[in-house]
Amino acid sequence: MMAFSRRSLMQAFAATAAVAVAPQPALASDDTQETVPNSFIESNGIRYAYRRLGPSKGIPLVFLMHLQGTMDNWDPAVVDPLAKHRPVILFSNAGVGLSGGAAPRSIEGMAGHVEAFLDAMKFKTVDLLGLSIGGFIAQQVALDRPSLVRQLILVGTGPQGGDDMHPTPEARAMISKPHSQAESLPFLLFAPTASSQAAAQAFLSRLAQRRAEREPAVTPETLQAQSAAAIAWSTPPESNQYGRLAELKQPVLVVNGNRDIVIPTINSYILAQHLANAKLIIYPDAGHGSLFQYTEDFVGEVSRFLQT
Length: 308
Prior knowledge:
CATH architecture: 3-Layer(aba) Sandwich
Number of helices: 10
Structural class: alpha/beta
Strand order of the largest sheet: 1-2-4-3-5-6-7-8
CATH superfamily: Alpha/Beta hydrolase fold, catalytic domain
CATH class: Alpha Beta
Distance between the termini: 30 Å
Helix content: 25-40%
């Protein structure tokens, strides 16, 4: 296989053009990310928390959250429009938010909980949207259960054993020490420019719109487990570094900002290069949470992708 340097990979994939988003019809139900009640289901002795929005029929789009995040970290500007045309499921893994059990210290263990939840919900086919560590988990679920996963959306994430998959020292310090979300999310998810930071403040305002039935913050024990799982996933194997990506035959939409300090953007290019059927979108002037900055364009791209 031909080797590619970081520079050649970055040059090989040109910037993508923005696409206008058509007006959307009203929600199929009255529930939105701001108002939908929490639901619970048990499997193998673990009580999982989830929120279900949108139509009762159709292939569910299941959201898998980033490290330290709960269901309350999903942006209504992303969730609500996508739930207009398809069932949307927000999910808290074991040990996160209102879900029971302990957070596993491996991505394989976290994927096992997702699979147990999906089986308990009696889903035969799903689409997965994974953000950051949620993208690691989504890849593992698709590898474990290829017949269950129809399509993947991988945002701000990377392959197992990717290229320098660790956060910058500044981002690592922000993740590892207690900070308010008002301080940490703009730094970790957005670029340091005035325009991106303005988008971060708008994002925080949208997150605050949900007032009832909010999830508790991730505990230090869960953060330690998530960090251990992420480090293990990010460590390159001794051989066949990206070999398992070739096993993923599903269509994949890969999305990131051009200034990701949590999982360097080069890893989104690597995903697109090694996956059999991938489309890559890199947003300018954006970071790890580009979907929360370019909400309308992201929703439009995802909607078109899931219709293919």
